[in-house]
Design a protein that fits this description.
With 296 residues, this protein is an alpha/beta fold. 63% of the residues lie in helices and 13% in strands.
Length: 296
């Protein structure tokens, strides 16, 4: 009986320590969600400004653009954002399933870049073998260097004629702890992309005009467009990751509370049973002694 009580006491202590860890991770996830969501909201205005600048450039150039033919020999590149750490529920699995389904519908060879160790290991189990991987940022300030690395790699691959189309895959946060997989074509910046920008409604009655070199301005705005698109995709993925981790920690906390309740109930029952047995032994001994005394 004492061994069972001691074992339960050990389990209760372990569960209590685990609950403390879960609560700490829950607080960290909740705090991280805020900074990434604030970054996404802050980028919205800047992204809109970049779009308006591109629209102004394209409004001045009314000549019909020619959509370049896609080289069938080049591969389609996919940048897939996931997580470096676990305890995120089905975050990586859902992203891999979504990306594989979308990419299999596209013809040609695929080159996959995984952003995150966990998503890379999941992709390695599919037909989409990751070519290279990037370390996932652990803060807002670390996103900028990552975006720079991705852009350099993209430019290198494009100069070598290895890739032409580039797609982004990431999870996008919704209300609460809900997120949904999303994808978009990053490159090429074709005529359809240009036409959509040119059709953006200008917010004032004053028509825009590009000063000095239009080509130089356009190149600068395209660089900013690519940077902001990648930055926002990464920030949205990180916000979704922490939302998924928060939901997982909430479920774990609930399960631990239920487990502790059951363990404590069993512990008190066994402890009371042990006390009852000890009292029964004392009473039995007392009655035996009293019986011997009466016969004497």
């Amino acid at each position: 009986m004492s061994d069972s009580v001691a074992s339960l006491r050990h389990k209760i202590g372990t569960a209590t320590e685990l609950e403390s860890v879960v609560r700490t991770m829950k607080a960290m996830a909740a705090s991280s969600i805020g900074q990434y969501e604030n970054a996404v909201r802050s980028l919205d205005d800047y992204y809109r400004t970049v779009q308006l600048g591109l629209a102004a450039c394209f409004r001045e150039d009314r000549s019909p653009g020619v959509r370049p033919a896609i080289n069938q020999q080049t591969a389609i590149a996919a940048i897939i954002f996931g997580s470096d750490q676990g305890l995120v529920g089905q975050f990586n699995e859902a992203m891999v399933e979504y990306a594989v389904d979308r990419l299999e519908k596209l013809p040609g060879k695929k080159i996959v870049w995984a952003v995150g160790v966990r998503i890379g290991s999941r992709l390695a189990e599919t037909r989409l073998q990751p070519m290279a991987g990037f370390t996932l940022p652990n803060s807002i300030h670390a996103i900028t260097p990552l975006v720079g690395q991705i852009l350099i790699e993209l430019e290198t691959q494009r100069e070598q004629g290895l890739i032409e189309q580039v797609y982004l895959f990431h999870n996008r946060p919704k209300s609460g702890a809900i997120y949904t997989p999303a994808s978009q074509q990053l490159l090429p910046l074709d005529e359809t992309w240009r036409h959509n920008l040119a059709e953006i409604h200008w917010p004032t009655q004053n028509l825009p005009e590009v000063m000095q070199s239009r080509e130089r301005t356009l190149r600068a705005l395209v660089r900013e467009y690519l940077f902001v698109t990648l930055f926002r995709a990464c920030a949205e993925s990180l916000a979704s990751e922490n939302a998924s981790r928060l939901a997982a920690m909430q479920r774990a906390e609930k399960n631990i509370d239920e487990l502790l309740e059951d363990l404590n109930r069993t512990f008190h029952r066994l402890r009371q049973s042990g006390i009852d047995e000890e009292l029964f032994d004392v009473i039995s001994g007392f009655e035996a002694l009293s019986s011997n005394d009466s016969r004497a």
